[in-house]
Design a protein that fits this description.
The protein has helices spanning about 1-15, 20-35, 40-55, 60-70, 80, 85-95, 100-105, 110-125, 130-140, 145-160, 160-175, 180-190, 195-210, 215-225, 230-240, 245-260, 260-275, 280-295. It is mainly α and about 300 residues long.
Length: about 300
């Protein structure tokens, strides 16, 4: 928890700093992006580059100091040190008093950090409706804090409110135009909404920034939705060498089915069923293919 809270504090700098040098501004954006994903070593490298150019750059110095605290296992959380209410909540969490911790944070409904931490807590507990409510409260208290929009978008995506999720991921991207993760989230949302051209554009942007395995899966799903079954299957087959999940085998099986290869479709859907415990459509698709094979 300490690490995630201080990380949240680090990200504030990316929304409020003022630079006199475009190069140092670019370096700071890169450092902030690395910070977002916990890549502190790389973040330090770019902060040091800024300080070589501008030794008195206040924002870079401040962010570097916070990151030094993050990477120091003996350091206490900035928020715990400066916010008694949050310090009390964290102490309750250490004692295993989760309900009391939630109550302590809930009492501070006008405190941004209390709302944000509650939102993160509920999101991690998969209580996405409550997470959305607290992210909205956090936004009302600090409208320019970008991470709240990302959390709210992901919460809405989990409860299948795609339009609200798209609105908030677009807001997040207005602050972080080079976020590969946000483009991947938007690609998935556009895929689910049937906006395949936009989905393809978004996943291409995400992959241009970072060739992440999860993004490659989204790309394959988009290709499948567009009817490019062989292309999708080729990408999924390569992906399956490193990722053996139900979803990968499901889409390989669906591609096989669309391509008329029923035995392989059954085989791959069978693998997907074994690996899945929450996809109710798999058995229906499997039985449909089995029935067709038995009629031959």
């Amino acid at each position: 928890m300490k690490k995630s809270v201080i990380l949240v504090l680090c990200l504030l700098f990316s929304c409020s700093c003022v630079f006199s040098n475009e190069i140092t501004e670019d370096y700071f954006d890169i450092a902030a992006n690395y910070t977002t994903y916990g890549q502190y070593k790389e973040a330090f490298q770019y902060l040091n580059k800024i300080l070589e150019i501008e030794p008195s750059n206040y924002d870079a110095l401040e962010l570097k100091n916070v990151l030094l605290r993050v990477t120091n296992p003996q350091a206490k959380s900035y928020l715990c040190t400066n916010n008694k209410n949050i310090n009390n909540a964290f102490e309750l969490k250490k004692q295993g008093e989760q309900d009391k911790m939630i109550s302590a944070l809930s009492l501070n409904s006008n405190d941004f950090w209390s709302c944000y931490l509650l939102a993160d807590f509920y999101f991690n507990k998969r209580d996405y409706a409550n997470a959305a409510e607290y992210y909205k409260k956090a936004i009302s208290l600090k409208p320019n804090y970008a991470q709240s929009y990302l959390g709210l978008a992901q919460s809405y995506a989990r409860i299948k409110d795609n339009q609200a999720a798209l609105t908030n991921i677009n807001k997040y991207l207005s602050y972080n135009q080079n976020s590969d993760f946000a483009y991947a989230v938007r690609a998935e949302l556009n895929l689910q909404s049937g906006n395949l051209v936009q989905a393809q554009n978004d996943i291409n942007k995400a992959l241009d920034i970072e060739e992440n395995i999860s993004y490659l899966l989204i790309e394959a799903k988009i290709l499948y939705a567009k009817g490019e079954y062989q292309n999708a299957k080729d990408k999924l087959t390569l992906l399956s060498k490193n990722v053996q999940t139900s979803e990968v085998y499901k889409y390989i099986g669906l591609c096989d089915y669309a391509l008329g290869n029923l035995p392989n479709a059954m085989l791959n859907l069978d693998k997907a069923i074994i690996l899945s415990d929450d996809d109710n459509t798999l058995n229906t698709q499997y039985n449909e293919i089995k029935s067709k094979l038995e009629k031959k």
